[in-house]
Amino acid sequence: MDTHLSLEALAEIQRFLKRIEHKWYDIGLQLGLDPARLEGIRHSGQTQGERLLSMIQLWLKGLGADAPPTWESLCRALEGVVVEEAGVAANIRRQKGTFPAVRRDMHAQAC
C-alpha cells in the first residue's frame, strides 16, 4: 500500500519534478487542487520553481486535492492527458519502488 506523503517529502518531490517545473499549474490541476488556489500561486510573483514548491505544499497538506498525497497519485497525475510526463512517473516508480495497482478483472482476461 502506498503510504501518505508528508511535508518531509517536499524536497524529494521537487527534485523529481525540477525538469518540468514549468508544468506546475497543470500538475496541480491533475492532482485535483482548487484552480482558485493555483491562480493565487500564479499571481504571487514567484519564480516557476517557487510556484512548483507552493503547489506541492498545498497538495501535501491535503488542501483541496482529489486523492491523498502518495507517490502513486503523483505518478497518475504526471501520466494524465494534461501533463503527459509518463517518463517522469516511470522514474519515480523505479526509484521509489511503487507500481500501479492492476485490476484483477483485467488480469483474469489476459490469462
Secondary-structure blueprint:
Elements: H1 10-17, H2 24-30, H3 35-42, H4 48-60, H5 71-79, H6 86-96, H7 104-110
Short description:
This protein is 57% helix and 0% strand. Helix 2 crosses helix 5 and helix 5 packs antiparallel against helix 6.
Low-confidence stretches at least 5 residues in length (pLDDT < 50)?
Answer: 102-111
Counting helices, strands and paired strands, the structural category is mainly alpha
Shape: globular
Mean of the pLDDT scores? 86
User: What is the third-level CATH name, the topology?
Assistant: Death Domain, Fas
Radius of gyration: 14 Å
Q: What is the makeup of the main sheet?
A: none
Total helices: the number is: 7
Helix content: 55-70%
Query: What portion of the residues fall into strands of 2 or more residues?
Result: under 5%
Number of domains: 1
What is the H-and-E element order? HHHHHHH
- Please write the CATH class name: Mainly Alpha
Number of β-strand runs = 0
Distance between the termini: 25 Å
- Write the CATH architecture name: Orthogonal Bundle
Structure description:
- There is one protein chain.
- This protein is mainly alpha-helical.
- The protein has a single domain, classed as Death Domain, Fas, CATH 1.10.533.
- The protein is built from seven helices and no strands.
- It has helices spanning 10-17, 24-30, 35-42, 48-60, 71-79, 86-96, 104-110.
- Helix 1 (10-17) packs across helix 4 (48-60), helix 2 packs across helix 5 (71-79) and helix 5 (71-79) runs antiparallel to helix 6.
- It is globular.
- Mean pLDDT is 86; it is low at 102-111.
